[in-house]
Each structure stands twice: as C-alpha cells, then as structure tokens.
Amino acid sequence: MAKYDKRFKLKLINTYLRGGVGLPVLAARHGIDYSMLRRWVDAYRLHGSAALCRKHSRYDVHFRLKVLRHMSRDGLSLREVTALYDIRDPGKVSQWARLYDEGGIDALMPRRRGRPQKMPETRPNLPVEMKAAADTRSREELLKEIVYLRAEVAYPKKARCAVKGRKPDSAKEKTQIVNGLRTRYPLAALLKIAGLARSTFYYQLRALEAGERHVELKATIRAVYEHHKGRYGYRRITAAIRNAGRMVNHKTVQRLMGELQLKSLVRPKRYRSWRGEVGRVAPNLLDREFEARRPNQKWVTDVTEFNVKGEKLYLSPVMDLYNGEIVAWQTARRPCFELVSNMLKKAVTQLGTRDKPLLHSDQGWQYQMSAWRRLLSANRLRQSMSRRGNCLDNAAMESFFATLKSEFFRLNRFDSIEQLQAGLRRYIHYYNHERIKLKLNGLSPVQYRTQLLVA
Asked: 378: burial class by Cβ within 10 Å (0-12, 13-18, 19+)?
C-alpha cells in the first residue's frame, strides 16, 4: 500500500491551486518533502488525477532514448521531464543519462531481473590459508563475526530509512543511525561500520539530547505562527512568547523556526534568476551603450515577477533600444526555460533578412544554458551579458519594469492571474502604440519607427 493515498494527494494539490499558501509552507504543515509535493502538482497539471495513482512500468530502450533526447533538445530539467512523461521515480532519468554517457544506447537496454538461469555447479575453492584460518577459529570468534556481519547488513537498511535513500554524510546523521541500532548490536561494531570515532559519537549524542529540551518551545512557536497565519517573523514571535510570561532569546527562536521551516509570509523573497555559473557566461558587449542607430540593432531582455494573492506570474519581454518598443513578450506561471525560449521565438519573427541584433541580458540561469545559445546562433543573434550583480548594465530593461509596475501594476487591483495577463496585454499595446516619450520627439515607439520607414 502506498504511503500517501490518492485522496491525500488531491487534498494538498487542491489546497495549493486555490492559492493563499505556497508549496514550502504546505509541505512543512503536513510533514512531507517539498520536492515530492512539487512533483505531485506538476504531474497533476499535465496528466490529471490519473498521475496520482500507483504505477508499475518497465520502460523500453526506445522510450528511454526519447526522454533523453527531449531533455537535451529543449533544455528540460529532471523534474520537468519526469512530470511530462509521467515517470514516478525521479531518479530513473538521471540513471538513464549516466548509463547513456558511459555505454551509449546498449547501456539503456533493460536487464533481466532475478537469479541467473543456471547456478554454478561447484563452489570456488578457497585458498589454503583461509581454510586453515576457518578451521582454527573458536566458536566465540565465529559468533562475533556473525554479529558483526548482521550489524553490517542492518546499518545501510537503517540509513536508507533515516536519510531518505541517500548515504549519510554528516556525523549527526551517522550518530542517529548508530544510536537506533546500539540496543541490538555492539557499539564498537556499529562505530567501525559507520566510520565514526567514539568521542565524536558521544559528542553528537549529547548535542541531540540537548536539542530535545526545546520540544515545548517548538510547539509554542508553531502555535503562535499558525494563530497569526504566517504574518509574524521570529522577532514578533519572540515578543509574543515574552508577553505570555516566558523569557526566551530571539536567536533561539530564529534557529528553531529554521528547523521547523517556518518564516514570515508577508515579505516573501523576490525572484532572482542567478543560481551560480550553471553554463557559459558571455562578455558584456553592450557595455551600457543604450543608444541604437536603427531598429533591430540592439535588444535587451530580462524576467520580472508579479504576485497576485499568493500566486506568481513571470513576464519575459525583449525591448528594442532604438525606440524602446517591446518587440515580443511571454508570460508563465513558473520561471522555466520555455518562458524565455518562446519569447525569443516570437521576437525573431520580426527580423528582416539582414538583421543581426545584439541581445543583452543578465547572467540568469536560463541565458547560460546551451539550448539558449543554440537558439541565438540559429537566428544569427549575438549574445551579451551584464556583469554579475550589476543591474546598471541592463538599466534600460530595469527602467521598463519600473515604469510597468508604477503605471500599471500598483495602480490596479487584480483578483486572478488571468486578469493580470489580460491587463498586461492591454498595457504593452498602449506602451508601444500610444504612450509618448519625450526623447522620441513626443512620439510613441511605434510612431517613431513608422516615421523612420516613411522617411
């Protein structure tokens, strides 16, 4: 029987889709893994409620190769491709990719399960030294070896349950596993198997026992947090506990809230596309030269985020620096690669046969991907990137976002993402065709470009 049934999964998915609560908060509230809840939501959006049932499938070599080619061609992540093809085990695709890199298509062939059809007729002969040692060992030594071997088998089983299938890497995790097995197996054998020093084990054990004294305080913190519906951060929660007559340090409350995965929902973190150097970084060819002599000579692009009642919408436009016109734009509920790739496919349809614009962006992870570089190369666009952490290198795009939010987003109230999308469509059309700019001689961007064509 599955650990989580279909009714439980649907309940959480519907709670998230109704809005008002994010995935991390919802996962922490029900004590489940955040990434697993996100996989449920992605699978439900693509395949409906059928994707939430248990599925036992064996994938042939043609299906595996199709998944790997789709992931490489469109630059999909492991989470996206598993949701798209309804693959329930997220580790399968990464395993297929590793096998394909090591052995090609032959390595993707499924292996037969079970024992070989024919067992060896005779056991291999042991060396004379091993036979002599086996003959001379006493009963006590053999029993000790049996106990050690049983502990050696029990340790990885306990580790898989404790740390969700991965190998324990920290002394704290190893201590928890050893402490759970020490009533059945000798401590010395368990420490040897775990590769843990005795002094380290007792140090970590004392630290774990000291952490248990905050159980009551954790319950109080969670009660205050839920009573105020996530509006309080650690400072206000500390003040509320002190007002109730209990002295507590604010640093302790902050640390315990981190362990409970609780944080204020009033000012959530803004979207940031920087995730480190995940691909290739292009030089800054634009170099803050925001003036262009002709249309389709210099383009700039970026991604911005909107929040409507807890739901997010991401906008990816591309602007022509000749007249500040929004050449193309795309919206999506998630900041995925398709957001920027679909925007670029729309933009290149505006190019003439001789146009080879420079496209400038920041160092966001989407713009570092090889799939993005292939799109630029296929359409004869040169890539340019801002320096890391320097928004002034893309000031023209940042200025448009500031204008968009001050003239449109903050002056209106939206009840849904669909209403925001419709409003964006109207405003960008107004921005291109009607809104005049003084530096364009009192003309709108489209009027200024049309005037050039007529002349």
From this structure: exposed
Measure the CA–CA gap between 267 and 316, rounded to whole angstroms: 23
Tokens of 336: 């995925």
Distances (CA, A) of 395 to 156, 322, 402, 441: 54, 15, 10, 21
Number of other CB atoms surrounding residue 432 within 10 Å: 18
Report the sign of the C-alpha dihedral through residues 202, 206, 211, 215, in that order.
Answer: positive
Nearest partner of 76 among 334, 343, 328, 280, judged by Cα: 334
- The string over 205-239, giving b where at least 16 C-beta atoms fall within 10 Å of a residue's C-beta and e elsewhere, is beeeeeeeebeeebebbbebbeeeebebbbeebbe
Query: Closest Cα to residue 223, out of 244, 199, 195, 193?
Result: 244
User: Does residue 12 contact residue 43 with C-beta atoms inside 8 Å?
Assistant: no
Cα–Cα nearest to 337, from 306, 368, 312, 362: 368
Give the pair of three-digit tokens for residue 310. Answer: 């807890």
Mean pLDDT of 45-70: 73
- The answer to whether the CB of 320 falls within 8 A of the CB of 327 is yes
Q: pLDDT tens-digit profile of 334-366?
A: 988 999 999 999 999 999 888 999 999 999 889
Which DSSP category does 73 fall into?
Answer: H
Residue 1 has what pLDDT?
35
What are the backbone dihedrals phi and psi of residue 327, each rounded to the nearest 5 degrees, phi first? -70, -45
H-type alpha helices, 166-324: 171-181, 187-194, 198-211, 215-227, 234-243, 250-260
In this predicted structure, the answer to whether residue 41 has a pLDDT above a threshold of 90 is: no
Q: How far is CA 133 from the centre of its chain?
A: 55
Structure tokens at 213: 């004294």
pLDDT given for residue 126 in this prediction = 47
Task: For residues 72 and 61, give the distance between their C-alpha atoms in angstroms, rounded to a whole number.
Answer: 17
Question: Treating both helix axes as pointing N-terminal to C-terminal, what angle do 61-74 and 337-348 enclose, rounded to 10 degrees?
Answer: 60
Three-state secondary structure call for residue 76:
coil
pLDDT in tens, 228-251: 888 888 999 999 999 999 899 999
Please give the span between the terminal C-alpha atoms of the chain, in angstroms, as a whole number. Answer: 75
Structure tokens at 190: 């368990």
C-beta neighbour count of 71 within 10 angstroms: 20
| Integer Cα distance of 55 and 197 in angstroms | 43
178: exposed, middle or buried (Cβ count in 10 Å: 0-12, 13-18, 19+): buried
Judged by average pLDDT, the poorest of 13-27, 46-60, 165-179 is: 46-60
Q: DSSP label at 306? A: E
